[in-house]
Amino acid sequence: MSGFQTPHWIIEKMCGMVDFNPKIILEPTPGEGNMVRVLKNKFPESEIIAPTDYWKLQRQSFDLIFANPPFSPILRGYEFLSDFMTRSENIIILLPWLILINSERRAQKIMQFGLMEIAHLPRNVFPGSRIQCCVMKLRQGYKGDTIFTFWERPC
User: Fold this and answer.
1) Model pTM greater than 0.85?
2) For residue 67, which of 46, 44, 88 has the smallest C-alpha distance?
């Protein structure tokens, strides 16, 4: 899905999922920088890291990974998520639903890491794309119930 930028209203709602003050936030695939601009506004005390090539980024940990990684090919987003789980205890990520529901093994790995919340997005979030998406909030070690919500496009 190269070229599909995250709508501002979704970034704002994703920011609302952050329930602590992260010191270092990674936005691993900044694209045109929509998320970076909102993150800098919402978390002015945080250092925002937005590399041009995530896979060349030095191995380090982050307080929060906040991402909308590429969806194409479909498993690319899961490759990112799998690596994110080695770099942060806190992840907020926008991905296709298929990443979670199309593989029991992937779903188990995500649940074992700690899936706190999942938000269902409207089908028309990305004009010209029919991929059904969701936002997941993960916290390593979380074992409670997963909150499920629906996000509506604002009028």
Assistant:
1) yes
2) 88
User: Which residues pair with residue 133 across a beta bridge?
Assistant: 96
**Tokens representing residue 79 in the block:** 């490759």
Q: What is the pLDDT along the chain (155 residues), one digit of tens a residue?
A: 345 788 999 999 999 999 999 999 999 999 899 999 999 999 999 999 999 999 999 999 999 999 999 887 878 889 999 999 999 999 999 999 988 888 899 999 999 999 999 999 998 887 777 788 999 999 999 999 999 999 998 87
If we measure between CA atoms, which residue out of 106, 108, 112, 118 comes closest to residue 146? 118
For the CA atoms of the chain, what is the radius of gyration?
14
- Per DSSP, which regions of the chain are E strands? 24-26, 47-49, 64-67, 90-96, 115-120, 133-139, 147-150
